[in-house]
Design a protein that fits this description.
heterodimer, A: about 400 residues, alpha/beta, D-Maltodextrin-Binding Protein, domain 2, 15 helices, B: about 300 residues, 6-stranded mixed sheet, 4-stranded antiparallel sheet, 10 helices, elongated, binds adenosine-5'-triphosphate, binds magnesium ion
Chain lengths: ~400, ~300
């Protein structure tokens, strides 16, 4: 019998067992329900208020107090800070540490924003500028021409420069990014854990001993990983597809092509991330012989996944374009969750995506090899929890 | 495949396995010919399981070799083995028939043949009514029957069974005995370990006794007996206790209802014993008994383990 057939037989058993289990159907239904609730609540969720951070440079620092007051009068909470120079301010905007940078003199303010300027902040700034201009006019002109003065004042508005073209669909893209991040996190966590539990189940029930009399350890491991991975893929397709369809149908989503693209990239990243994490989960699982010990041996792996999820969520909402975000997004433990999120926001450049894929694939190759070794060395040794070093030394 | 089917010799050649200070197997060698049933006996912890797992190849030996059909056992050869592990190993939540079909397919059967053979073994082992039950819902003895079916379902060319009779009811014991003899009859070498010595004696062509990792005796029960003298049952009602003490080559095993059981060392003449018995008065019985495997085992292994 060819190795491919052995792997397929093992994978097929996993597929049958899981797809038939009631927990799979319930899990899928619950995921769809949660996704729908999220989509419907989306508007209120992302409209959530937070202080707008404005950086002031040079003479513009003089408007700090009045800007806060004017903005507050328009219902906008502003937190001002002083920035060393315009360049530092612009990079702070890119990194998501500032929402707007105000430079120039009080009578000729310039604003730099990432994409678009908050309307209330614009009006507040305009008021400040106009007040300054008015004061200057009143002071300089001896024979006052009221019409002339009013016209000049009306012309005086804040000068706005955007670092990037404003994107009217930003809110929707952000929602898509967060949904795909959450879906990928849950899928990787769930199916990675199932791989580990499956490995432990075969060890604790000792069925592995009769299995390994006929299939090679790597065939058994590969079959299990592939089988469970396909189950997870199927679930992601169903949940993601239902989510997109419902959101378009409900009129919440007006950019279906972006949504479908995000989902497809999400599926690719699920596969990459799953191979990465499942390798680690399988190796960790093979070190213990009892289900009760599984959680503790998996803790380091699940922690990394949780970290990747929390970081992605925060970075995508606040600073998807920051250079730190870009660096994190190509590192293999974070890439499968962060990069598809950035792609949904079209914050990732083509090169960053290519580097992320190459690095993740390379680490998958290394991890799969290492995991196969650990698994083969550990899977027949039941009893006390094994140490990584003794497993690797013995083989 | 050169070894499709049965008819090949299993050679275990000097396998040694050390666990820290414990020598679980110490240069254990034996061969099992096609059609032969080989029984493996020994105290708890003597090394039976270790030797069987090495023979199967799920455990690697520190030294020594295992050959089948004249070649070292490799993956393709192992696929033709039927193995019953000491501790039961099945997926607890899989249904019985489905489980057996899966194992048969892993051994290279196509689904039709896997299904047919699984059904056949289920009815043969009295499990037909449980074919769609989850393994974990079966009684322990029935789980053991499933485990046996799992070792047999792919028509193996060699059987390695670690304590196959444990947990079986008398009917199942007879059933399994018949199956093992039948498989041997088909040219399959059969190796099994057991603590039920009467069963081993009844069923096996040859027996290996293992003690502290070493094979201390190996051969047919008759061969083991030949080096071991015999048991003598003397009925001399008038004899005082201690009448046989001091006779050369004779050990008193016990006195019961006026019958004295004596162990006669190999090559010792029984006539001086008869003379001594007659000297005490009338002798109503004087019988040679062939020692049972249990007696041989105690003889070989001694009183300590
Ligand atoms: N994984 C292991 N680690 C350490 N020692 C072991 C291990 N497996 C077996 N041993 C030791 O090897 C010796 C032989 O064990 P084995 O299981 O082969 O005995 P056995 O003859 O099958 O006994 P039983 O009749 O109780 O099944 C024992 O002393 C046992 O403690
Ligand atoms: Mg044993």
């Amino acid at each position: 019998m060819s190795p491919a057939r052995a792997v397929w037989l093992v994978a097929r058993r996993e597929l049958r067992t899981r797809l038939r289990a009631r927990s799979f159907l319930i899990g899928t239904a619950v995921s769809i329900a949660v996704l729908v609730a999220f989509v419907l609540m989306q508007g209120t969720l992302f409209g959530a208020e937070r202080a707008t951070r404005v950086g002031l440079v040079g003479q513009a620092t003089a408007v700090a107090g009045s800007l806060t007051e004017e903005a507050l009068a328009r219902g906008l909470e502003v937190r001002v800070s002083t920035v060393r120079d315009p360049a530092a301010g612009e990079s702070a905007i890119t990194d998501g540490d500032l929402d707007a940078l105000v430079t120039g003199t009080p009578a000729a303010l310039h604003v730099v924003v990432d994409e678009s300027l908050d309307e209330n902040l614009r009006r507040a700034l305009n008021t400040l500028v106009q007040r300054e201009v008015l004061r200057a006019q009143l002071a300089s002109v001896e024979e006052l021409d009221p019409d002339q003065v009013l016209a000049t004042v009306a012309d005086a508005t804040v000068d706005v420069r955007s670092l990037r073209a404003p994107d009217p669909s930003h809110e929707q893209r952000l929602a898509l990014a967060l949904v795909i991040v959450a879906l990928l996190y849950l899928s990787l966590l769930l199916y990675g854990t199932l791989v580990a539990q499956g490995v432990v189940e075969e060890k604790s029930s000792r069925v592995v001993e009769i299995l390994l009399a006929t299939v090679r350890p790597w065939e058994l491991l590969a079959g299990k990983v592939i089988g469970l991975g396909l189950v997870g893929l199927a679930q992601l397709v169903v949940v993601g597809g239902a989510g997109v369809a419902l959101a378009v149908f409900a009129g919440v989503l007006t950019i279906p092509s972006v949504a479908v693209g995000t989902l497809l990239w999400g599926l690719l990243w699920y596969l990459l991330g799953y191979l990465f994490y499942a390798s680690v989960f399988a190796a960790a699982g093979s070190l213990v012989s009892r289900q009760e010990e599984t959680q503790s041996v998996l803790l380091p792996v699940t922690s990394v996944l949780v970290l990747a999820f929390v970081l992605s969520f925060g970075l995508l909402t606040r600073a998807p374009n920051a250079s730190a975000t870009a660096v994190l997004s190509v590192l293999p433990p974070f890439a499968p969750i962060l990069t598809p999120g950035r792609m949904a926001l079209s914050a990732a450049t083509g090169w960053q995506v290519v580097i992320a894929i190459v690095l993740t694939l390379a680490s998958v190759v290394v991890l799969a090899w290492l995991s196969g070794r650990i698994y083969a060395g550990a899977v027949l040794r039941t009893g006390a929890r094994l140490r990584l070093r003794e497993v690797l030394r013995r083989h | 495949m050169p070894w499709e089917g049965a008819g090949f010799v299993l050679e275990v050649d000097g396998i040694t396995k050390r666990y820290g200070d414990v020598l679980a197997c110490d240069r254990v060698s034996f061969t099992v010919a096609p059609g032969e049933v080989f029984g493996f006996v020994g105290a708890n912890g003597a090394g039976k399981t270790t030797a069987l797992r090495i023979a199967l190849g799920v455990l690697s030996a520190d030294a020594g070799a295992v050959r089948w059909a004249g070649a070292p056992v490799d993956h393709a050869a192992r696929r033709r083995f039927g193995y019953l592990p000491e501790e039961r190993g099945l997926y607890p939540r899989m249904r019985v028939l489905e489980h057996l079909v899966y194992l048969a397919e892993l051994h290279g059967f196509d689904v039709t043949r896997a299904d047919g053979d699984a059904e056949r073994w289920l009815s043969r082992l009295g499990l037909r009514e449980h074919r769609d039950t989850e393994v974990q819902r079966l009684s322990l003895g029935n789980q053991q029957r499933v485990q046996l079916a799992a070792a047999l379902v792919h028509d193996p060319g060699l059987l390695l069974l670690d304590e196959p009779f444990s947990g079986l009811d008398p009917v199942a014991v007879d059933l399994l005995s018949a199956v093992l003899r039948e498989r041997a009859g088909a040219g399959v070498p059969v190796v099994f370990s057991s603590h039920q010595l009467d069963l081993v004696e009844r069923l096996c062509d040859r027996v290996g006794i293992i003690q502290s990792g070493r094979l201390v005796a190996c051969g047919t029960v008759a061969e083991l007996r030949s080096g071991m003298g015999s048991t003598l049952l003397v009925e001399a009602p008038a004899a005082a206790s201690g009448w046989a003490d001091g006779l050369p080559g004779v050990t008193v095993l016990g006195v019961h209802n006026g019958q004295t059981r004596l162990r006669l060392a190999a090559g010792v003449d029984d006539q001086p014993v008869l003379a001594a018995a007659l000297a005490t008065g009338p002798v109503r019985g004087f019988t040679h008994q062939r020692p049972s495997l249990a007696e041989l085992y105690r003889e070989v292994v001694g009183d300590g383990a």
